[in-house]
Design brief:
alpha+beta, Jelly Rolls, 4 domains, about 20% helix
């Protein structure tokens, strides 16, 4: 061994006397070795042929061939020994520091957790959570509701995962890369990174490059990423995976950037500013524990992070703002419309506008959402209109559109999503409710009925949609797939997470005798289908539309949203058309807040308050030609009706019928209404059907008759 040989050499020289001479044993006389290099010296040689040192006992006192005296030669050995040991020590220290630094840089430690956390290794295997757990390349970490995880990337790189978030470690070491698949991540880099170090927080196509800064990122879905910088600066980049094009932006303290490839080319990164009110609670909690960082943020980017709890805005106020914007964009659906059609191309109705806004916990997460129903022109034909369901969530002080879907029965061969039309030439009924069951809260069309008009035939469809995991999707659709002379047939379509998983013929009028459908009776078929979702229907479906006004069982936990009814009455040369929209009081929408208090929303169902602040007035005629403009849209009081004379009450009572196009046998009434610009009398008195009257009109007519009777 090298060390063993060196020790022998040291021992050898230590035995030499002070005068530099030493005796030789008989053994040594036989074999003489060089005192400098240890090689054997041939007998009789004066110098070592290997290193040139004079051999002991050789004649002459000359210098050794190497130019060194004997004592100097021994000093050389000591120097060599010292250098050798020093090199070994330095190498050992270097190796230790290398592996120490490597382990420190690549070791991501789970510093702390609260709640329910799951960890998977790079093979996807679930790992048991342990104190100070190390996380390596390929590991994934997920937090559940009300659960948080603190990550120690090293002593100066800290991160915190928000609840319901998921990350994966893409790369470790000096080039650290953390991918946020969903949720939010806070980061605090206390010292600027070295020249060879990088830290990227990314999604698949979007990257935030960090040097030394503090902020947080939000990943609401795979197509969007937002970054907020509290202190320092970052570089953001978005790469188009198809073209390879890249857009980059530098973001400073007090700024935020929203990144998405859904924008126009070159507009993938949009920047803006934010305030202290925008800081989420999970970030604020970390900042409040670091007074120095709070002061640094206040000086740098401006937000004042105080220990006081940031007041939470009422979700209703948040939703009202976006609802006001929708009303400004689309208007409010006209609740009472009428016109005359001579042929199917005659446009008599304006079916556009906001229909309703319903506040309920639709996804059963403990917080209310806002469901807005509105009608807008179809892409196929501007005369046709699509009813859209839009679900809004309150997120950090803003109403965010979470999902949107057309409201129409599912059909695998459907060519259009249109539900209404400006030239609607069929009798039509559409009733919509929210129904809560053990399995969810369903938005159900309990009936979409179309019949008669300019063409024979009838269609009835029933379906339910559900809002889960931030998305509106079909739950089930009981769809008419055949009718008329071919016999009625219905297919039940079932969905899971928006994907069609089953479809069966539930009822077939022709094939029922041959066992070609699941059920022989229509009532049994539809009750069995919706029973799969926990939706209970009335026992005797033959009473629906007569003694029963709803298809849903009285025991159902339901909330009426709206119903739309269109009636066509034949007149000479065409049809008199009358459309009525009735909206439940809880879902009614309101117009300009500057309107006087006490003006009601049109078309509410029975049982609502008689007046609401800021409500939209009923449609009015030119120059105020109606005696009672809102008789069709709210319940009138006896006090206000008694202000009218007996003759005025008679005119007001008949005005209700005149609005629906009724003609009069009394000459004075006919002349009176002929003088009104809004009047279009097309229906003979003996052919008028009072079923077209809405609940407000019926109740108000009864009250007028009572007051008229008391005046006799």
């Amino acid at each position: 061994m090298v060390f063993g040989y060196t020790i022998k050499q040291i021992s050898f020289f230590a035995r030499e006397p002070q005068n530099g001479k030493r005796g030789r044993s008989e053994e040594e006389k036989e074999h003489m070795f060089c005192r400098e290099c240890g090689k054997e010296i041939e007998d009789g040689a004066s110098f070592c042929r290997f290193c040139g040192t004079r051999a002991e006992g050789a004649s002459g006192m000359g210098e050794p061939l190497g130019g060194q005296a004997g004592v100097q030669g021994r000093g050389t050995v000591w120097k060599v020994m010292f250098v050798f040991v020093a090199v070994l020590a330095a190498a050992a220290v270097a190796v230790f520091l290398y592996f120490s630094a490597r382990n420190r840089a690549s070791s991501i430690r789970m510093a702390k957790t609260t709640g329910s956390i799951d960890v998977q290794d790079k093979e996807g295997k679930e790992l048991a959570l342990a104190e100070d757990m190390m996380l390596y390349k390929g590991y994934q970490v997920g937090t559940q509701e009300e659960s948080y995880a603190w990550l120690d990337l090293d002593s100066v790189k800290l991160a915190k995962m928000d609840e319901e978030s998921r990350i994966q470690i893409r790369s470790a070491g000096k080039q650290l890369e953390v991918q946020v698949d969903s949720g939010n991540l806070f980061f605090n880099i206390k010292e600027p990174l070295g020249d060879e170090e990088t830290l990227d927080i990314r999604t698949s196509d979007m990257v935030v490059g960090i040097r030394g800064t503090c902020g947080w990122v939000e990943v609401p879905d795979g197509d969007h990423m937002r970054v907020y910088i509290l202190e320092g600066k970052v570089k953001c980049s978005v790469t188009d995976p198809d073209s390879g094009k890249v857009q980059k932006e530098n973001i400073q303290a007090g700024e935020m950037a929203e990144m998405s490839l859904s924008g126009k080319d070159g507009e993938w990164i949009r920047t803006g500013s934010f305030t202290g009110a925008d800081i989420p609670d999970f970030v604020r909690e970390e900042l409040e524990e670091d007074e120095g960082l709070k002061a640094k943020i206040l000086d740098g980017s401006g937000p004042d992070i105080s220990l006081e709890e940031v007041p939470q805005e009422d979700p209703a106020a948040i939703f009202e703002r976006v609802l006001s914007e929708l009303i400004s964009a689309y208007g409010i659906f006209n609740a009472n419309q009428s016109g005359v059609m001579v042929n199917t191309s005659d446009v008599w109705m304006d079916p556009g506008g906001v229909i309703s806004a319903t506040f309920l916990d639709f996804d059963l997460d403990g917080e209310e959402e806002m469901l807005v129903c509105h009608a807008e022109p179809s892409a196929e034909d501007p005369v046709d209109y699509v009813i859209l369901l839009s679900m809004y969530e309150a997120v950090e002080g803003n109403a965010v559109l979470a999902s949107q879907a057309p409201f129409i029965a599912y059909n695998d061969y459907r060519a259009s999503d249109a539900s209404l039309s400006g030239n609607d030439w069929s009798n039509k009924e559409l009733r919509v409710n929210a129904v809560r069951t053990d399995s969810g809260c369903y938005i159900m069309c309990e009936e979409f009925w179309i019949c008669g008009g300019f063409a024979d035939g009838m269609a009835e469809n029933y379906w339910a949609m559900v809002y889960r995991d931030g998305k509106l999707d079909y739950a089930g659709s009981f769809t008419q797939v055949a009718g008329g002379s071919a016999g009625f047939a219905y297919t039940g379509y079932e969905f899971e997470n928006g994907t069609l998983v089953n479809s069966q013929i539930y009822y077939d009028e022709v094939a029922r005798q041959e066992g070609g459908a699941l059920y022989m009776d229509f009532g049994d078929a539809i009750k069995a289908f919706f029973g799969k979702f926990g939706i209970r229907l009335i026992d005797d479906l033959s009473q629906y539309g007569y003694n029963q006004t709803s298809l849903l069982s009285d025991s159902s936990d339901k909330t009426a949203i709206f119903e739309f009814i269109n009636r066509l009455e034949p007149i000479q040369g065409g049809y008199q058309c009358n459309a009525v929209l009735r909206v439940d009081a809880a879902s009614a929408v309101f117009g300009d807040p500057s309107l006087e208090a006490g003006q009601p929303a049109p078309g509410r169902l029975p049982g609502d308050p008689s007046a609401s602040e800021g409500a939209l007035p009923a449609p009015s005629s030119p120059d105020g030609e109606y005696l009672l403009p809102d008789i069709s849209s709210r319940y009138l009081t006896g006090e206000e009706l008694r202000r009218l004379s007996k003759e005025e009450l008679r005119l007001a009572r008949n005005e209700v019928y005149a609005r629906h196009g009724r003609m009069f046998n009394s000459e004075d009434l006919q002349q009176y209404f002929n003088s009104k610009s809004w009047y279009h009398g097309e229906i003979l008195a003996d052919r008028f059907d009072e079923s077209v009257l809405n609940e407000y009109e019926k109740k108000n007519l009864d009250l007028i008759r009572d007051i008229e009777g008391s005046m006799q």
